[in-house]
Amino acid sequence: MAVAPHKVLLLDLASNINRVPSNYIRPISDRPNLDKVDSIDASIPLIDLHDVTGSNDVVQQIGRACKDYGFFQVKNHGIPDEVINNMMQVSREFFSMPQSERLKSYSDDPSKTTRLSTSFNVKTEKVSNWRDFLRLHCYPLEDYLHEWPSSPTSFREDVAEYSRRIRKVALRLLEAISESLGLERDYIDRALGKHGQHMALNYYPPCPQPELTYGLPGHADPNVITILLQDDVPGLQVLNNGKWLAVNPIPHTFIINIGDQIQVLSNDRYKSVLHRAVVNSYKERISIPTFYCPSPEAIIAPAPKLIDEEHPCQYKSFTYTEYYQKFWNRGLAKETCLDLFRATPYI
């Protein structure tokens, strides 16, 4: 087996430097401008999911959040604190392992369904991002569990339990989003084919010059919805009305954002919103997004019920594989690739 090059991960490089290497430095026109970010505690809605299946009010709250922000936070989601704490702890343990142990999972081949890598797409990007990540496919769980790292010892057990529970939350949210659009409760569920689910364990080391780079630059997610667990270190920022808002972590809540596929299914009623991760000079940050997706062969198109004279069809139909390949090849620099699938050229 080929040995990965020395210090292939940012984690191992960042511990010994006091300046950002040139390949991480953004052009002046594309820097975080951290002093221009609004930081308010109630920057996006916080929704109580306790009665999501029996309350039209919760459905309406979710619909308003999707329409006005593209983002919301949820509490009383049904996942025990212990499951969340175990997930965060085992993620921290994974990135704390010796380099030789971590690199057993390393690959820069994006077709691998379990892989440790760095930045975003090391083969195509011009400027690197200040993060390492472990990507895991996790539905159907039995198809992928054997590929996952076997160290730390509780890794597979803890991550599998978290994956099962987060999927239940995703399905409840998709039902509520369907209802909020005036569609059948199971409309989005059926539109996703056999479904797909994967997650990233993102590790952002302390950065000596955080104003020069990004953990991840502004981008919209290509999937259906993303459910984000983050530790207590701020870093997520959301674009709203032309301004970046810092979303400060609230323990044991999740941050939800709708992805490009919801924008298509909703025929532009709901918009997939740009967001980014910034870094800091004082403390590592871990975030764990779960990406809920259509299965590769699922055909995505606007819901017929949401097309009328006032709302003409905005997108041509496509398979999720077609969409994801374009997203991956373009990278995060282009922000979104929805316009490539417009029913008519977008002007």
UniProtKB/TrEMBL annotation:
It catalyses: salicylate + NADH + O2 + H(+) = 2,3-dihydroxybenzoate + NAD(+) + H2O. GO terms for biological process: coumarin biosynthetic process; defense response to oomycetes; response to molecule of fungal origin. The keyword Metal-binding applies. The keyword Oxidoreductase applies. Gene3D superfamilies: B-lactam Antibiotic, Isopenicillin N Synthase, Chain. Keywords: Dioxygenase, Iron, Metal-binding, Oxidoreductase. GO terms for molecular function: 2-oxoglutarate-dependent dioxygenase activity; metal ion binding. Its cofactor is L-ascorbate. It holds the Pfam family DIOX_N. Transmembrane segments: none annotated. It comes from the Eukaryota. This is DMR6-LIKE OXYGENASE 2.
